[in-house]
Structures are given as C-alpha cells and as structure tokens.
Amino acid sequence: MIVKSVENEKLIRKQFLVSSRQAKKLSSLAAVEGKSEAEIVRSAIDAFEPAGLSGTDAAELMDLVSQRLKEAVESTQQANQMVFNTLQELER
Question: Are 84 and 43 part of one and the same domain?
C-alpha cells in the first residue's frame, strides 16, 4: 500500500516489531533530531551497509588503510624526535 512520497520516492507501508528498549530509543532519537520516527527508521536503513555491500573493494580499503598508517607512523616519529630533542635541551 503506497501512502505518500518522500524525496520523489513512493513510500510503502511496512509493519515490524521492536523491543521496548528499541522503541524508547527510536522515540528519543526522533525527539532529539526533530524528525518523525519513520524518518529515523528510513535514515537508519539508508545508512546501513553490511560488509561486502559498501561499494568499496577490499584492495582499495587496504591501500587506504596502508597509506593512512604510513602517515601516522611518520607523524609519530617526527613527534618523538621533537620530544627527544626537547628533553636533550632541558637536560643541559
């Protein structure tokens, strides 16, 4: 059953069960965000990306992680050298 449209998409009515804890969390999130509970659920569905469905392949992710790790190591080495030099100056 189509009820209305949001962002040029037709919406379909769905019913599902949630725990009491989830219902309270949903209500709180909606209040904090100033959105309806339905909008919160739609946003959560859109944001959900299970492993393997994100559109980025493993090799690409590994390259990115490797590059960021190299940058972090270099930055840490530079900071360590600065600390060492400062300690040497303080000991004089």
Answer: no
Q: Kindly state whether residues 41 and 76 are assigned to the same domain.
A: no
Global pTM reads: 0.50
pLDDT tens-digit readout, 69-80 = 999 999 999 999
* Side-chain-facing half-sphere of 9: CA atoms under 13 Å: 6
pLDDT tens per residue, range 48-66:
877 655 666 778 888 889 9
Task: Tell the residue number behind the tokens 């769905």, with chain if given.
Answer: 14
Check if the beta carbon of residue 40 is closer than 8 Å to that of residue 26: yes
| Structural domains of the chain, count | 2
Domain encompassing residue 66: 56-92
Question: What is the torsion angle, in degrees rounded to the nearest 10, for the CA atoms of residue 16, residue 18, residue 22 and residue 26?
Answer: 30
